[in-house]
Amino acid sequence: MSSKQSALPHILVWGVNYCIAAGFTTLWAPRCEASITLFQNNLAGWQAAVGQSTTLDFVEEGAGGYVLFDHFASVGVLLHFPVPFDPAVGYWYRFTNEQSSHLSDAGGIATSTSPPFPLSFRFLTPTHGFAFRHLDNQGSLGASFTLWNNGAQVGAGYFQDGPTGPTHGLYSTAQFDELRFTYGMVYLDNIYFQTTPAPSAIALLALAAPFGSRRRGG
User: Fold this and answer.
1) Beta carbons of 172 and 140 less than 8 angstroms apart
2) Is 87 helix (H, G, I), strand (E, B) or coil?
3) For the stretch 91-103, what's the b/e string if a residue is b when 16 or more beta carbons lie within 10 angstroms of its beta carbon?
4) Which of 43, 61, 95, 168 shows its CA 20 to 30 Å from the CA of 134?
5) pTM
6) What is the mean pLDDT of the chain?
7) pLDDT class for 83, splitting at 50, 70, 90?
């Protein structure tokens, strides 16, 4: 599985309070403990915040096909469905460029139910950072997500429609072991997630804090 990088586009989010500084946006999600930073055309900034990260590009030898929830456990990711499901059934489909000409490589992941449900991912080690690349023909994006840790929701956000480009990322002050897309995102090209704590994130959040405190105080 190879690692690929691309520039992060401009991203709009919803929330109660937010601030923009140094090329990023911080979202304080209502009734959640996390503040979520979304990077705007700044992949280098996302990488600096998360430190070491892992890329899952869904590229394997052979043809595509249905996969089980633990198919990618070796890289620390479980495919997930937010209600009880039969672990012996492949609710997901790993597709290749034979099924889609809009992949950046030779692999992608999709849900296989009808109607399709949004993708969800569980991480064997809790993380603070997540990014994803959708298919190249998806010129606009409308997708909401929630973040969970130990079964409790810790954050939420929304990527709004617009000329956004294919790659999007977030950094959460609260760690999470599950990301659920609650709207949109029934197929993806690649995903990326933080694999070690990032000391540089402390400096990033310290920079964001004065802006957040002024906005909350006002």
Assistant:
1) no
2) coil
3) bbbbbbeeebeeb
4) 61
5) 0.74
6) 75
7) confident
